[in-house]
Amino acid sequence: MQRPWLNLSLMVRIIIPLLAMAAGCLPAMAATPATAKTDAHLAATTDCAALLGVDFSRDPEAPIALLSAKVVAASGKTPEYCAVTGYVQPQIQFEVRLPTTSWNGRYFQIGCGGFCGFVNIAGCGDVLAQDFVVAADNMGHVGNILKEPLWGSDPAARRDYGARSTHATAVAAKRITAAFYGLRPAYSYFRGCSTGGREGLMEAQHQPGDFDGIVAGDPAFAGRLGAIANVWDAQHLFKPDNSLVVSKPMIAFLHDAVIKACDGIDGVKDGIIADPRRCRFDVGTLGCKDGGEGSDCFSRAQLVAIKAVYDGPRDSKNRRLFPGGSVFGSEGSWAGDDRMTLSEGALRFLMFPENPPLSYTYRDFDFDRDLGKVEAQVALYDPVAPHTAPDLSAFQKRGGRLILYHGWADQGVSPLGTLDYYAQVHSRQGGLAKTRDWFRLFMVPGMYHCRGGNAPNSFDFMPAIIAWVEHGIAPDGVVATQKDGDKIVRTRPLYAYPAYAEYDGKGDVDAAASWHPATPKVVGDDRIDWEWGPRSH
Question: Where are the domains of the chain?
Answer without folding.
Answer: 1-185
